[in-house]
Amino acid sequence: MEKIEIAILGLGNVGQGVVKILQENTEKWRNKCGANIIIKKVLVRDPAKKRDVSLPPDVVTGRWQEIISDPEIKIIVEVMGGIEPARTYVMEALAKGKNVVTANKDLLAEHGRELFEKSQAAGCDLYFEASVAGGIPIINPLKQSLIANNIEQVMGIVNGTTNYILTRMTQEGMGFADALKRAQELGYAEADPTADVEGYDAARKIAILASLAFHTRVTFQDVYVEGITKIRPKDLSYARELGYTVKLLGIAREESGQVEARVHPALIPSSHPLANVYDSFNAVFVRGDAVGETMFFGRGAGQMPTGSAVVGDIIEVVKNIEKGSTGRLSCTCYEHKAFKPMGEIMTKYYLRLHVIDRPGVLASIAGIFGNHGVSLASVIQKNCEDGIAELVVITHKVRENDIQDALKIIRELSITKEIANLIRVEEN
What reactions does this protein catalyze (predicted)? Predict the structure, then answer.
């Protein structure tokens, strides 16, 4: 059998998962792809550092030049994360005719265009299943299995940290700070959780999914982003009373040739499949014109689930090398579609307001909404304390700009104490 030598860049959590999977099932991989996969080099910052995997001393190196100058290394597996030096290494690898497997969502969301142009020019594979939703197969289905469809919508829970936090807040009534602390104690959240709780991680992932689904380049900068730090337990409780569940969603749609891409908390009907995705699990809901509705569910992160996706890509690239068909799955962003501004988005809204409790207040607020084309589906007074009433409002579908304009006026009224929260409502 032919020997295919690979190099792994990075030996952190995911890198160690990749090594473990490759080492534990060598005969299986040999039978599945018709070649021996040999880990020839692993690039690390500190070769002397002890790790949970066993590798020969001559395999571990701190020198990139040993890898890029070795003509026998056919596949570069990039699991180091971040933009640099990962971008430089991947670009140099492709320029040298080496195939690349990456789990780097940041790199793809920011520099996908140049990476795919380089891989296409070189006739090399660039595979990235692990970049979105960990071990859940979603990249390959969008690129191949669902290719017969015009994809209309991709909507999903693509960040396990925030889903775990919202689950604890919903099921146990925990505050945001306590739920975040629990997530950090269990290893679901980083010491600095900003990328997760502010929605940036999910935004990078939805940019990648939108690019694949709608065949147009969507970058991180094109995605509207809002995190979960303003969500309070009472919002989750009120949502449940109204028949909804709150999730941090990545949403991408195409309508009339325009693409929208956004990440924010949303109320979804409790009957929706995504409403029953709890804890650190991820799920991606896809609607196509031929297939209808499908959902992909599973572990969205972790050493072994993400390692599983990376190794799956390695095996596919090995098969392509064996058949002389690398570069077969090139960039699918062959269109240049317009983006719908966030202000033009049409959706329903949940509002929680604190106002002075006296006659005529509700009529005044309803009048301002009406003047801006905002129709109210329901208004409920939930509490009244010290002369302050708490109103919970659900609107009919309305344009984002219109409700924001109305709220600017309502916020300045003497009867308004606080607009405590605004959460969009997604029902389709």
Answer: L-homoserine + NADP(+) = L-aspartate 4-semialdehyde + NADPH + H(+)
